[in-house]
Amino acid sequence: MKTVVIASENPVKVAVAQKAFAAVFPEEEFSFVSLKSESGVGDQPFNEETERGALNRTDFIKAKYPEADYWISQEGGLFDDGEALYNRAWIIVCDQNGFITKSSTPLFYLPTAVVKLVRGGMELAHAADEFFSSVNSGQGVGAVGFLTDGIIDRENYYLQAAIIAVSQLKHKDWY
Description:
Blueprint lengths: L1 E5 L4 H14 L5 E5 L13 H17 L5 E11 L4 E11 L4 E5 L3 E2 L2 H8 L4 H9 L9 H6 L6 H17 L5
Parallel strand pairs: 1-2, 1-3
Antiparallel strand pairs: 3-4, 4-5, 4-6
Helix pairs in contact: 1-6, 3-4
């Protein structure tokens, strides 16, 4: 059995990691450890901070749990092109040999009212909760769930990127 350390205790991110490893390595058995981690970036990362936060989270959990076989981190953030704000998450996976893979979710526009709240200093999860009259959507459907009428929830939004990152790990000889 191989051990995967997840850089989050958020149930959505834990489920994403478990499902990605199970899908890509169906013949393997895994035990999963979820740890709170430090991103080293602001609570609401923007632009390149999002990827850096995911990398930092991976480094943090590797230092805390060095005997694992794999480490995975997921960092959601915002991309600001000066006119609009988009949501994007980065997924980082690392193996015992130090091989690192990266993938990101697609970008999606945020509604104008959410953008105003975020530009006013609110984190996206709180802004989404206020705008959509929800509670703790960051550990549930997320903004993407509301924007797609539940067709894509936060777990599914992250899952494709996580599968891509884990698949790169499986086929690292191609890279």
